[in-house]
Amino acid sequence: MLNFVLFAFVSSITPGPNNSLLMASGVRFGVKQTLPHLFGINLGFGFMFLGVGSILPLLPAGTMEVLEWVAMGLLLYIAFKIASAPTSFHEEKTEDKPWGFFRAAAFQWINPKALMMAFAGATSYGLDTVTGAVVFTATNVVCAIWIFAGAWLRHFLIDNPFRTRIVYISLALIMVLTIFL
């Protein structure tokens, strides 16, 4: 069990699509407005882990390959949206808001890193899927560090569009790299 907890911790806190999105949201919107996104990741991943452990192995061959291509396309789109996000924090747009709970929860089903974590966790540690889902749901709370890092960076970026663009592009590139890792 300790090995699984360590796996869950390390794989949750390392860079990936969820953490890039959380950091970008922390920069753009702050901690409080990004919390629903974090909670959506936590519970969404737990439910996705249950699905991976019990439902996905029953799907026809080739289904995962199709999902991988859809996920790659969506990740490239999201990376573009992060890289091209407005660099001014003073703009007020009604469509410019952080991801909510349900969007973040649904994203887990096409997040390649999350799917890899779920497949590896469900097949390598001999735990039942419910225990694995609970451990990951609890462990994913460490992703909050990315929100706080983003909110901290906000103070250095708020009046510097060039630095802000560099951070956004860096986060987008990290997300794109996760496709190939």
Brief write-up:
The protein has nine helices and no strands. It has 181 residues and is mostly helical.
Can you offer a commentary on this structure?
This protein has 181 residues and is mainly α. The chain has one domain (2-85, 105-180). It is built from 9 helices and no strands. Helix 2 (17-29) runs antiparallel to helix 3 (31-54). The longest helix is centred in the first third of the chain and has 24 residues, at 31-54. The mean pLDDT is 85.
Q: Please give the radius of gyration in angstroms.
A: 16 Å
- Count of structural domains: 1
Order of helices and strands: HHHHHHHHH
Helix content: over 70%
Rounded mean pLDDT score: 85
Figure out the total of helices.
9
Measured distance between first and last alpha carbons: 26 Å
**What would the principal axes of the Cα set say about the shape?**
globular
β-sheet strand percentage: under 5%
Low-confidence stretches: none
The total of beta strands comes to 0
Structural class: mainly alpha
